[in-house]
Amino acid sequence: MKTINKFISGLCFMALLLTSTSCLDDDPLVDWDNLGVVIELPYKTHEYNLTKVTPNENETFPLMVNYTISRASDNTEDISVQLGVDESMVETYNASLAASAQKYKLLPASTYSLPSTLVIKKGTQLLEETMTINTSSLTPGEYYLLPIKITGVPQGYTISGNFGHLYVRVQMEN
Asked: Which residue, of 21, 44, 66, 141, is most buried by count of CB atoms within 10 Å of its CB?
């Protein structure tokens, strides 16, 4: 019985030894050294909600762009970030909703002024600008969506794959 236990223990040790060294020559899945600096829209979710909006009252929200560094003092240059509206994202967003849910319409361009370029200033890492939506021409009871997307950053910077877009949802009150 002792011999069998020693044999099984030895076999388990050999298997552990062989499996623990088999991955040492593999390339890493992510090359963290060459990842670059990430520019993002730093919202906890991909949505900013304006609910129960009354027609004829302007609504404001903070439009933020972030540079992912540990200290703001590490930013040694102004960084231009281009923004745009991706109309195709409205259809994608509506497809993710339940069949019975009210669908969203693209927020008309005449109701807002989205800056095409924002600049994160040297020595800072977060830019916050107030954006206003004029609701006077919006239909009561309708749901509107403004899909904002980072469309360009300088060479050497990366647009966040997870936080590169934001849905601004405007739900008009009846």
From this structure: 66
